[in-house]
Specification:
Length: about 130
């Protein structure tokens, strides 16, 4: 059986630190897709291992923050690991056209979906042309 030498290479691969002045804790940056249509921005974030009740979503001064602690207990001694369990943390600056009061979130099968609707004034609209008499 091989020694744990391969594991040592992978331990720091996907972990990132938060701001050094705020938190020495390590975080994982979840993969995110953002899609825009006429009425909203749709943000999906991959959060495997997170629990719905532990996910925190905040908007403060135009910054959207997603924070999801993860705690997975395993038995036995790890022989090889390619990923670490750590809290998920991601921030985005959202545009002023987003109606923060109408934001909605869904979480199913490890996938967080945020609906960020645009304000009515920001939605495209067609202007009808009338015939002058």
């Amino acid at each position: 059986m091989m020694a744990n030498g391969i594991t040592a290479q992978n331990e720091e691969r996907s972990l990132q630190t938060g701001e050094e002045t705020r938190a020495p804790e390590k975080f994982l940056r979840p993969a995110v897709n953002i899609i825009e249509d006429e009425s909203e921005l749709l943000l999906t974030a991959d959060l495997p291992g997170a629990l719905k009740d532990n996910i925190e979503i905040h908007v403060d001064q135009g910054i959207l923050t997603i924070n999801a602690p993860v705690s997975v207990q395993t038995t036995g001694r790890p022989l090889y690991r390619e990923f670490e369990w750590a809290p998920y943390y991601r921030q985005f600056q959202i545009p002023e056209v987003i109606d923060q009061g109408q934001m909605k979130a869904e979480f199913r099968n490890g996938l967080l979906t945020l609906h960020l609707p645009k304000r009515e004034a920001a939605k495209p609209r067609r202007v009808e042309i009338s015939v002058a008499s």
